[in-house]
Each structure stands twice: as structure tokens, then as C-alpha cells.
């Protein structure tokens, strides 16, 4: 959606997160008096790939190295707290990714990018040469029942 707020154009974008290969997201509901849209954790599950003909792809679930230790995925190591997707980590990662990518977009070099503080979304302010300001808010979500 978009709207005009004070002297800015505000864009709100819903970004659906997809699990990387060999992973799935599982929504786990809290019990209690929380509102429905705020009452779930997103559990990251590593899928077994032993039965697939995947060539040299390692299975995260079952140990395949000589010491018998299970493999840990980069997703779990970098964007999760325990086995759960950490929205603050995802937001920080996306903010850093956007800042890094911005320098590689010469067609936008006259626009200034400012990443606004936010721990549960990615808020970006673009300031143009004519004083025009665009604010984009990326809100992260997963689809219930997605693989």
C-alpha cells in the first residue's frame, strides 16, 4: 500500500520470507491472551535429504562426517535464536543488505538512502535531489502452510 504522510510518500510492502532449500518454516502458536497476529513463533526445521538423490549435498539432520556431529545451517547460525527465526536479526540482515546493494545502483546515485531505526521491519528513507522523500517500510511475514 502507499499513502502520503506529511511531506513524504510512504510505501508499505509485505515481504514473504521463503525458507532456503532443505529447510521449512513452521508456525507455532503461543497459548495465552495474545492477539492472533502476534502469537506465533516461526520455527526453522532442517529437512532430511538422505532419501533424495542429491549427489554430494550434505544432510543437515543426519551426521555424515567422521565424528558423527550433525551439520548446522547458516540460516540457523545467523538469523535464528535457537531454532526460531529472529525477526530482529532478519531486519538487521535486510538493512545491511540494502545498504550494501545501494552503492551498486548508479541510476539512483542522486538519491540519498537512510536506514531508519527499526527492530521488527526494515524502514528506508530515500531523499531525492528536488527535496522529494520516499519512505519504504518492509514488513516481514511467512505464509501459513508454506513448504
From TrEMBL:
Gene: Itpripl1_3
Organism of this sequence: Cisticola juncidis
Origin: domain of life: Eukaryota
Name of this protein: IPIL1 protein
Amino acid at each position: 500500500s502507499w499513502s502520503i504522510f506529511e511531506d513524504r510518500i510512504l510505501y508499505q510492502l509485505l515481504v514473504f520470507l521463503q525458507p532456503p532449500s532443505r529447510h521449512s518454516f513452521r508456525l507455532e502458536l503461543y497459548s495465552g491472551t495474545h492477539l492472533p497476529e502476534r502469537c506465533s513463533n516461526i520455527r526453522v526445521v532442517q529437512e532430511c535429504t538422505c532419501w533424495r538423490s542429491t549427489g554430494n549435498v550434505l544432510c543437515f539432520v543426519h551426521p555424515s562426517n567422521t565424528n558423527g556431529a550433525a551439520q548446522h545451517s547458516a540460516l540457523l547460525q545467523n538469523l535464528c535464536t535457537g531454532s526460531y527465526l529472529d525477526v530482529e536479526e532478519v531486519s538487521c540482515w535486510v538493512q545491511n543488505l540494502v545498504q550494501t546493494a545501494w552503492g551498486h545502483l548508479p541510476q539512483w546515485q542522486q538519491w540519498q538512502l537512510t536506514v531508519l531505526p527499526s527492530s521488527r521491519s526494515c524502514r528506508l528513507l530515500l531523499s531525492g535531489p528536488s527535496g522529494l522523500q520516499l519512505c519504504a517500510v518492509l514488513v516481514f511475514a511467512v505464509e501459513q502452510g508454506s513448504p
